[in-house]
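Translate structure to sequence.
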């Protein structure tokens, strides 16, 4: 209750949920003694794959006994998920203390909620200043509060695609502008660029960072992987090749994210990551609500012996990756979907092929979500589309035959609602 009261106060310090400028966060961090200048950080940006890439980084580093502080957003169930210190999620009491300190030092000055959380994360790193920091920055990198570092160890650029277009000028809502926002202000240490969905996007990234003096590593040019065996993949870069057990995370794209994490750590020689750390770390990585198979719980009981997958994809790039995985499965697929209003709903659903049924639902307690009824109207060209008010009703309404698959997708907020109910 104490934590929630502090959060409620912080959310009222600025009239906008997001305000893409850096003056407020810089001024606050200056009052804190600029804790962000005292960290050794790997920064991760992009549209899709950030969370999975960080999970692989974390798992490999754990095998190497390198402690991490990790900052991600948004959270799926609890805000504490965003604050990892010394490889542990922060407790309610410690997060309350940290946010209270930010609140006191800020002294009611205008500050967005995300800026308050970001300043709090940097401040919390002081207690574990020798740890490696992994920090995700998103939406648009130039104006993201995480993007105030003067130096870092590396920038990772994961898969970039169209998302959050409503935050861009109306006449400039395209992938080129997104890539500019995400990559034009990267620091000049090391840049690792993951596999992109097209050569055009890769070339656009190259153009944007062409004047950056960083060491640059591109998927296919400087590192790669091949899949030759069912349970292993083969990674290769300038330092040689590795035979690695496949991750426990579903989807071919997870091999791409794993390879990006490996390339990053192999190029950061001071970390002294050994081949065995990678081989043992990759299969231990986990990532909540990313093509996650749900094997138990109250909602899982409703589908009995049928396979149930929870996925947080919410933009066209994520939908493409999800459906590339679904196409590898020989079964009927039933989809339950809820989305936020500012997404490209038609393009998202366009990647779904050969779907047995589609059920749209409302996302409760999310005023920025599109109603399930309106979403159904947008998907009216899809066969067997229906609307149900909530997740439980939707699951109960789906006629599952033996070996059918049920997928719940469309939003991180929907994933959080599912996990809470489950």
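Result:
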């Amino acid at each position: 209750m104490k934590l929630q009261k502090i959060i409620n106060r912080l959310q009222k310090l600025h009239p906008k949920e997001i305000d893409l400028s850096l003056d407020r966060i810089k001024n606050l961090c200056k009052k804190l003694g600029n804790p962000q200048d005292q960290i050794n950080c790997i920064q991760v940006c992009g549209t899709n794959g950030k969370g999975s890439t960080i999970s692989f980084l974390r798992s490999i580093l754990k095998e190497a006994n390198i402690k991490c502080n990790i900052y991600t957003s948004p959270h799926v169930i609890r805000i504490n998920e965003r604050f990892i210190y010394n490889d542990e999620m922060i407790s309610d009491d410690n997060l309350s203390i940290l946010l209270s300190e930010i609140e006191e030092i800020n002294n009611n000055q205008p500050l967005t909620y995300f800026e308050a959380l970001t300043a709090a994360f940097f401040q919390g790193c002081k207690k574990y200043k020798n740890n490696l920091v992994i920090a995700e920055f998103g939406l648009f990198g130039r104006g993201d509060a995480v993007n105030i570092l003067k130096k870092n160890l590396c920038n990772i650029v994961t898969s970039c695609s169209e998302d959050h277009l409503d935050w861009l000028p109306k006449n400039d809502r395209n992938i080129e502008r997104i890539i500019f926002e995400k990559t034009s202000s990267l620091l000049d240490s090391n840049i690792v660029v993951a596999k992109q969905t097209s050569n055009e996007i890769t070339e656009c990234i190259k153009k944007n960072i062409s004047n950056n003096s960083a060491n640059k590593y591109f998927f296919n040019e400087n590192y790669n992987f091949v899949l030759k065996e069912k349970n292993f993949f083969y990674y290769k870069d300038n330092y040689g090749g590795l035979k690695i057990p496949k991750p426990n995370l579903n989807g071919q794209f997870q091999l791409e994210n794993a390879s990006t994490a490996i390339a990053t750590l192999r190029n950061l020689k001071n970390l002294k990551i050994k081949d065995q750390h990678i081989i043992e770390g990759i299969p231990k990585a986990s990532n909540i609500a990313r093509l996650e198979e749900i094997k138990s719980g109250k909602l899982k009981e409703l589908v009995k012996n049928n396979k149930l997958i929870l996925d947080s994809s919410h933009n066209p790039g994520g939908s493409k990756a999800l459906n590339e995985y679904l196409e590898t499965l020989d079964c009927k697929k039933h989809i339950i979907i809820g989305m936020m209003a500012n997404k490209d709903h038609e393009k998202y659903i366009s990647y779904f092929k050969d779907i047995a049924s589609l059920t749209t639902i409302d996302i409760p307690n999310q005023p920025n979500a599109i109603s399930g009824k309106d979403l159904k109207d947008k998907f009216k060209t899809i066969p067997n589309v229906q609307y149900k008010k909530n997740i439980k009703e939707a699951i109960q309404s789906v006629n599952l035959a033996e070996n059918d698959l049920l997928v719940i997708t469309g939003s991180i907020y929907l994933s959080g609602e599912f996990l809470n109910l489950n």
